[in-house]
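Hi there,

I know you've been waiting on this one. I reran it after we fixed the sequence typo, so this is the corrected version. Both the input and the resulting structure follow.
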Amino acid sequence: MKAAFDEIMATAVKRQHEPQRIVGDLLNAEINEKQARSIKYQLTIAKLSRSTRRSSTISLPAASSLSNATSCWSAALAPARPTWPSPSPEAASDPAPAAVSTTWSISSTALKAATSSIPIVGVTSDPVAFGIVTSLARPGGNITGVVGDGGPEFWEKHVEIVRAALPTVSKVAYLSPRALWDGVTGATTREAAARLGMTMLPQLLDDPIDETAYRRAFAWMVEQRAETLLVGDAPENFTNQDLIIASAEHAKLPAVYPDGSFVRRGGFLSHGIDYDELFRYASKEIDQIFRGAAPADLPFYRTTKILLAINLKSAKKLGVSVPFTLLATADEVIE
């Protein structure tokens, strides 16, 4: 199985796949292994609508195409034949999922509210802070998974990286949906910026989060004379990577991104968790559930591996001279 995982991750890096796509590929690899042992499963990809995310409610299962993903996604792994009590008439013929994997905190909360029996594996921000579980070590209930950020210390370090890369800046724009800024991430970011003598200029995205919203956001940043940009770790920002990178370059804003995929696409700098590691671990937890483990007994996994990537070609375009001390600590440098 490890060989299949490694091939998927190598392809994802080469072709710059989005996190949601990687999760689906890893889950399919798990399914293929089960089918080789005559255990039949099918994979359903469910898109949570924006109204669903606002109300934190969801009917399971709900299926749609993966090709035009714009926000958060869940993958339902279901036995091929059994049926289940459907929460909605249109889903009456769908089988009960054997497990559900999701890639955002709000969708994890919605899925947990939808069922107390179907196992859920979530890639989330701090699940204790979001009220998803009361303990990482003993989650209880029907949900477990991996923590998609390093906690408050990580977000403090995120701001410190801005100061280390750009020692003279004082006005920092912040790009994310409103929910991220209003939560633990935003509070920690504001406190760290104030401690370092920087003024945060939050540009918060409200529905509809589309190209027009992003272009409006960057125009506002230019008007406010922002000197740099912090890009929040939100699914919408991952989906719109190319637009954000191009807009930041056009506005002459050195941007600090939440993942190395932005830097490989031409962004300036990233400081973020190792998503490859998280998706591998989440897939292993799904495998353990297939083998009979209960989510209540599987601790949430929190990574301690944080990666720093720098694109010197982008830095040159932006007129930024990256301090040697920062370059020396980078995990990846693109020249």
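Quick highlight: The two ends are 34 Å apart (CA to CA).

Best,
R. S.
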